[in-house]
Every structure is written in structure tokens, then in C-alpha cells.
From TrEMBL:
Keywords: ATP-binding, Cell cycle, Cell division, Cell shape, Cell wall biogenesis/degradation, Cytoplasm, Ligase, Nucleotide-binding, Peptidoglycan synthesis. It comes from Caldicellulosiruptor diazotrophicus. This is UDP-N-acetylmuramate--L-alanine ligase. Pathway: Cell wall biogenesis; peptidoglycan biosynthesis. Its EC number is 6.3.2.8. The lineage of its organism: Bacteria, Bacillati, Bacillota, Bacillota incertae sedis, Caldicellulosiruptorales. The gene is murC. It catalyses: UDP-N-acetyl-alpha-D-muramate + L-alanine + ATP = UDP-N-acetyl-alpha-D-muramoyl-L-alanine + ADP + phosphate + H(+). It is an enzyme of class 6 (ligase).
Length: 442
């Protein structure tokens, strides 16, 4: 949303908006001359605006209700983005249940390094891009494509990526088959003149692409494919590998600067897109070796007394598993996971899976659910997850507020341990509280 606001401001429009709370993003918007209200109120709608809203807000949001009463032009974020896309020659849309932000950032960064002057919209702050968006030329637009409420079906991509397909957003989708159907419709939006890069190691993705008429480029870490990783080596959680084509030729050697095996797939997808667009392999290789990741994606955010603090946006069991497996590889001590479930519906439908994924940590601290767009009509609480973890033998605590979590961490964590805040809500704020309570070195 903030990227759209800044793009429109850059094009000369008068832009204002609202958010639930102050943040680094609201500060940036104000610095760019955009008025931001804190809280949502019908008085913010004056009657002469075009209103763009995110699918994350409720249907009874007072500003949305007021805009409808005034018969204003109203667009959901994805729909409006779809209009913006029509101005671009190449629209690269990155889809998948996991990894969209990192892969979008990787592709954007590679194209910047290759002097393609891309416009980039990404769902997190990326230090190497200078924010969550880059305004470039209208030749290349690199953008995340989210499946929630079928948002990406409003896009007009010319090039697509599908990283994986997993069971998520079950407050909207009925089951994994309906999720696959949505991804299939997304894939079918890619014109025959374009191409789509897909992860052929993912069974759900393979099902989706079985009858496509556009050019499909397969990536893999397990077998020969159009673009695949070979001779994969792990050093303390960081991976390097050869990139090969289906003729078994070595195209590049990638040494990643961000940890986690899942990033091998993200890098392969980025390599496939960039090389197909004509970027030379050595430029891609160099860009990926420099790439430091996006904010809140396995981000090292601080340390005290030899204890390392990480923050990760993982909010699905598959993501949590990948995050904790990576941290276990990096850690010289224990991994203490502070988990904030994101939405009641997701916690209810995936409760057992959350428990299974979290047991990879040496210690789990569960805190209250971040409700986001929901009210708790699901009869679920974080305490149920705590009891489930206890039931399967996980060393865990339930602590409801950040102050008490910080006190616990400062008291219990030892030198060499990793403390990780995990979740898509505001759990990252807990890091600041921990650092404030941490002993000051003399």
C-alpha cells in the first residue's frame, strides 16, 4: 500500500491515507508529503477521492463504508495494481505461498545491477533497494503476487514465477485444491509471448502447470531441469552451489549471503528470470552473492552478551520449519523461539502443524495471537497451542506480554544462544524491549 501511495505521489497526485499505528512506514510517507491518519474514521473521507484499500481490512471498516455511501471510485489494492501494470512492457509477478518477498527483492536487485532500471514493488523494507519500492522505467516492473482472496488474478503479468503451493489462507480458500485452482488461473494469465518459472520439486506446482500453453522454465534442487542446483554445499547454514541447465552445463557458481536451504530455490528462480531476460550470468552471480535479504526475513537484528537476536516473518508451519532448521545450523548454543500466531483462523486450522514445526526449537515462548483483520470467532487461543506443545514434549512457556517475555529472555538466554522472534504481526517489537532490558556492558 505504501509503495502505491509513493508512486502516485511521484506522479503528481495528492495522496493521503490511514493506518492502525505509527511505524517506520508512516514516517517515510509523511517525509514524502503524504498525510497519514492514525486510526480509521469516516471523517477521513471527504467525498472527492479515489479510494484504494487493502484486502487485509474488514468490510465494515468505517472509511470503506463512508466511501461506498458517497459512491466514490473504490479499488482493492490488487485491482489498482493491475491497472498500473498496463503501463509496463514487462511485468514480472512472483507468486508462491512462501518466499515471494525474498525472490522479488533478488530479481529487482539483479536487474538494478544489470542497469535495466526496473520499477520494484516488494512487501518489506530492503536495505539494498533503499526501501520497499524503486521507481524506475516502464520497461520492467517486478512485483509480489499474493494469492490471498485471489488478489493476483487481478494482475496483468507477462512473466510469472511460482515458488511453491501450500495449505494457507484457509479463512478464504476451502482446501489445497481450491488454492491450486487459483494458482492455475494465475499461471494461465501469462501470455504465450512470456514465460513462467516454476519449482518442479513441489508436487502441487507440478499439478498446476501440467497443461499450460505458455513457456515453462523448471527449477530444481533434486534433479536435472531447465535450471537446477548441483554440488550444493552448506557452511554454517549458508549455501553455495553450481547452477546448471538441462544440458548439464555449469552456468554460474552462486554463494549466498543469506542463510537457509529455501533460499537456494529463491536464488534459482531469480537466476532463471534474469538470465531469460538477457542478464549475463556473471552479473547475476555477483548480485546474488551481495544480496543481504529483506527486512524481517531471517534478519539478524541485534545481540547482547554473546546472545544473537533474529527476527523472521514466518507465519506458516512450513516457513517456521525452514527458519528454525536454519537457525539450528547457525547457532552455537540453543535456539529460543518467541512465536506470535498470526490470525485466529490460521492457528485453528493449522494448530497441530504449528506444534510440529515449533518443536525444532530448544525452547518455545508462545505469546498472544496477532488478530490482524479478524475477530476471535474461532474458539482458539495461544494457550491451546501452548498446551499442544506441552503434550508433545516441547519445552515451552506461555507469556502474554512483551515486557515479561523480555525479562524471561534476559534472565534465561546464555552466551551462544539465538533468540528469534517469529510471526507476521508486531512480535518484532519485542526485540527492542529485550535490548532495553539487556545488561549494559561496562
Amino acid at each position: 500500500m505504501s509503495a502505491i501511495a509513493l508512486i502516485l505521489k511521484n506522479q503528481g497526485f495528492c495522496v493521503e491515507g490511514s493506518d492502525m499505528q505509527e511505524s517506520a512506514t508512516t514516517k517515510v510517507l509523511r517525509e514524502n508529503g503524504i498525510n497519514v491518519y492514525i486510526g480509521h474514521d469516516e471523517s477521513h473521507i471527504h467525498g472527492d477521492e479515489i479510494v484504494i484499500y487493502t484486502a487485509a481490512i474488514s468490510k465494515d471498516n468505517p472509511e470503506l463504508v463512508a466511501a461506498k455511501k458517497m459512491n466514490l471510485k473504490i479499488y482493492e489494492r490488487a485491482e489498482f495494481l493491475g491497472f498500473l501494470m498496463k503501463d509496463f512492457k514487462n511485468v514480472i509477478a512472483i507468486a508462491g505461498t512462501h518466499g515471494k518477498t525474498t525472490t522479488t527483492s533478488m530479481i529487482g536487485y539483479i536487474l538494478e545491477k544489470a542497469n535495466y532500471n526496473p520499477t520494484i514493488l516488494v512487501g518489506a523494507f530492503v536495505k539494498q533497494l533503499g526501501g520497499n519500492f524503486v521507481i524506475g522505467s516502464k520497461d520492467y516492473l517486478v512485483v509480489e503476487a499474493c494469492e490471498y482472496v485471489d488478489s493476483f488474478l487481478k494482475f496483468n503479468p507477462t512473466i510469472g514465477v511460482i515458488l511453491n503451493i501450500d495449505n494457507d489462507h484457509l479463512d478464504y480458500f476451502k482446501n489445497v485444491d481450491s488454492i491450486k485452482e487459483s494458482f492455475k488461473k494465475f499461471a494461465m494469465k501469462i501470455p504465450s509471448s512470456g514465460f513462467i518459472v516454476v519449482n518442479c520439486d513441489d508436487k502441487n506446482v507440478k499439478d498446476v502447470i501440467s497443461k499450460l500453453h505458455t513457456k515453462v522454465i523448471c527449477i530444481s534442487t533434486k534433479e536435472k531441469a531447465d535450471i537446477f542446483a548441483d554440488n550444493i554445499i552448506c557452511n554454517d547454514g549458508y549455501y553455495e552451489f553450481n547452477v546448471k541447465n538441462n544440458n548439464n552445463e555449469v552456468l554460474a557458481h552462486i554463494k549466498l549471503n543469506i542463510p537457509g536451504f529455501h533460499n537456494v530455490y529463491n536464488a534459482l528462480a531469480a537466476f532463471a528470470v534474469a538470465s531469460k531476460l538477457g542478464v549475463e550470468a556473471f552479473i547475476i552471480e555477483h548480485a546474488l552473492s551481495e544480496f543481504c535479504g529483506a527486512s524481517r526475513r531471517l534478519e539478524k537484528v541485534g545481540e547482547f552478551d554473546g546472545i544473537y537476536l533474529y527476527d523472521d516473518y514466518a507465519h506458516h508451519p512450513t516457513e517456521i520449519k525452514a527458519t528454525l532448521a536454519t537457525l539450528k545450523n547457525i547457532s552455537k548454543g540453543k535456539v529460543i523461539a518467541i512465536f506470535q500466531p498470526h490470525t485466529f483462523s490460521r492457528l485453528k486450522t493449522l494448530l497441530n502443524d504449528f506444534a510440529e514445526s515449533l518443536k525444532l526449537a530448544d525452547k518455545v515462548i508462545v505469546t498472544d495471537v496477532y488478530a490482524a483483520r479478524e475477530k476471535n470467532v474461532f474458539g482458539i487461543t495461544s494457550e491451546k497451542l501452548y498446551f499442544k506443545l506441552k503434550e508433545i514434549g516441547v519445552d515451552c512457556e506461555y507469556i502474554s506480554n512483551f515486557e515479561d517475555i523480555a525479562c524471561y529472555v534476559v534472565k534465561e538466554a546464555k552466551k551462544g544462544d539465538i533468540v528469534a522472534t517469529i510471526g507476521a504481526g508486531d512480535i518484532n517489537k519485542c526485540i527492542d524491549v529485550i535490548l532495553k532490558k539487556a545488561p549494559i556492558k561496562s
